[in-house]
Amino acid sequence: MSVCSLSCLSIVALVAILIDKLWITKNVTVGIPTVLGSVVFLLAFKLMILGLVGEYLGRLYLDHTGTPQYVVRYSMREGSKDQSPTNGR
Known about the structure:
Layout (H helix, E strand, L loop, with lengths): L2 H22 L6 H35 L24
Helix pairs in contact: 1-2
């Protein structure tokens, strides 16, 4: 499950808990479902921020070292008869 869907699911759960508390069963304590929904939402938010920091650090590392993100293994010339790769694969 992706982080975005996890946070959306927790928001839907928290809204359902709020609707249940306000209109359906007014005398029920909110307790455990609210805490679990809040924890899942904060966990998803933390994972999203961690992913953004990881992307930033990865790009900063590649820029600092000067290494490319990918290496071209072979190239084909336009108009050549042999369209097979040059390394025999």
